[in-house]
Specification:
By secondary structure, the chain is an all-alpha fold. The chain has a domain of about 170 residues: MetI-like fold. The protein is about 80% helix and about 0% strand.
């Protein structure tokens, strides 16, 4: 008994240590971004930085307005969620509740393959196939646009949404479904009125995962969106918060206002993601209480 108790205490201590390391990493990142990003915001001005419509960091008279980046990130993420979440959700329901064993194995293999593809490959395929296709279909000079970024992001978030949704739906006790069927409900009614509500928290977690992936993606978006600091428009080249940091960090001088402004963009992006997660978690908590 003493050896077993010592082993359990040791395991608990290891888990506690790992949890503290995780929290410590988040705190270190937060402090570093705040320390690195606040000086530029002070020098530029909070209002001019957040609501300025022009970004010209290398001009003779540099301007550091990131409103186009913020709106582009919001619109791009919202568009990807509007497309990706319904497709991922219904695919998850089909895989978990309707598909046969062979069909499920094939779809799960395809989803795992999508999850393992590097983001640069998504960007390359989008640049070679999607961008010219948008240009031809919509008769625009350049297909590198917000619309192309939305399509690429919606595909990239599918694997996470599908896998987490399937896991949540598989965890629903079979007795719930049997009871619904015994009361005369059809299989479809059982799936969407019993199984899905019971797995609501897991499906919501899948949506949170998709939002995080869409907001944080940089390389693929940079390759298909044009990477130009325009106000967001569906058929024009745009730049996201992530791509703004990635595209200029390499040639910005250490300690310069440009470098500090890029850290400020990273801070805004970090706070944006934290706000989304907090809002969704608050929504989930209210639903659980109800």
């Amino acid at each position: 008994m003493k050896k077993k108790q010592l082993f359990e205490n040791a395991v608990q201590a290891i888990f506690l240590l790992l949890g503290l390391v995780t929290v410590g990493c988040v705190l270190l990142i937060t402090v570093y971004l705040i320390v690195s990003g606040i000086p530029a915001i002070r020098e530029i001005g909070l209002f001019n930085f957040l609501f300025g419509k022009e970004w010209a960091s290398t001009a003779e008279e540099p301007k550091y307005g990131i409103l186009p980046f913020i709106l582009t990130s919001v619109y791009g993420t919202a568009g990807a969620i509007l497309i990706g979440v319904p497709v991922g959700f219904f695919t998850g329901v089909f895989v978990s509740k309707i598909a046969g064993k062979r069909t499920r194995a094939v779809i799960e293999s395809a989803v795992n393959l999508l999850a393992g593809i590097p983001s640069v490959v998504y960007g390359l395929v989008g640049m070679l196939v999607l961008v010219p296709g948008i240009s031809k279909i919509f008769h625009v000079p350049d297909g590198a646009s917000l619309l192309a970024a939305i399509f690429v992001l919606s595909v990239m978030i599918l694997p996470g949404i599908i896998k987490v949704s399937v896991t949540a739906l598989d965890a629903v006790p079979k007795e719930y479904e049997d009871a619904s069927l015994a009361l005369g409900a059809t299989p479809d009614e059982t799936f969407f009125r019993v199984s899905v509500p019971a797995a609501r928290s897991g499906i919501a977690a899948a949506v949170v995962l998709g939002v995080g992936r869409a907001v944080g993606e940089a390389m693929a978006v940079m390759m298909v969106a044009g990477n130009v600091a325009n106000m967001p428009s569906l058929f024009e080249s745009v730049r996201f918060l992530t791509t703004a940091v990635a595209s200029e960090m390499a040639y910005s001088s250490p300690g310069s206002l440009q470098r500090n402004a890029l850290f400020s963009i990273a801070l805004v992006l970090f706070l944006f993601i934290m706000l989304i997660n907090a809002t969704l978690n608050c929504f989930l908590k209210r639903n659980r209480e109800k």
